[in-house]
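To whoever is on call:

I kicked off a structure prediction for a single chain this morning and the downstream step that reads the tokens threw a length-mismatch warning. I double-checked the sequence; it's 250 residues and nothing unusual in it as far as I can see. Pasting both halves so you can look.
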Amino acid sequence: MTDTVSPALPQLIAHRGLSAHAPENTLSAVRAAHANGIDWVELDVQLLGDGTPVIWHDRGVRRCSNGRGGLHKLDLAAAKALDVGAWFGEAFRDERMATLEEMLELLATRRMGLNLELKVCRGRDPVALTEAVIPRLLEALPAQRLIVSSFDTRALESARALVPDPERLRLGVLFEKIPKAWQAEAERFAAFSLHADWTRLKAERARAIKAAGYRLLCYTANDPRAFAPCWDWGVDSVISDDPRRFLATT
């Protein structure tokens, strides 16, 4: 890999916004991250049934709203009718689901960075998702403040086909446990970064990834003391529900 994108990543990235203190994947969670000095967020994007890209993690809406059913069964009007904040706390009552455009406007205004996961749930079309999302991202944010990641290889393939130049679109390959063939996967997508479950990361593999020139991000760490050895392995960034816990130790 040739490391052609020089700006460093921040050590701290807020998982689904500052999700320990605001409802995940909402405008409020991103505002909270910014207010607490966290300049990068990790968010999820999916498509509604009418093709609108929205910031949402789950296949359904029950866990994080006052509604039920599959996200893909909703159009924009139905999605916007949901309260996606009251489940977290009364202070967030009447929070509405954010469209990708609304979120990108907020991020651009505050000059924040984004790690956006292309969330491909069972039965959903990864190509349709990437084609709806990638052009909007490139219009809104500079390459240095954007990483697009996914567990879904079809989504990564589609994203790279849309933007062959790795300097224009930085792709991150998401793993739970990084496999032995990690480098082939990274090369396949001309990846910028690898993203791993920190509890399953080993020192030898982390150091090999860094030696090969890739950025290494770990999710979802909320205990700075337990995570501390990973910094010595070369990890670039931690994705945390409450990155503020790490501020005194980084």
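Update from on-call: the warning came from a stale cache, not from the record. Cleared it. Sanity check on the structure: Residues 126-140 form the longest helix (15 residues).
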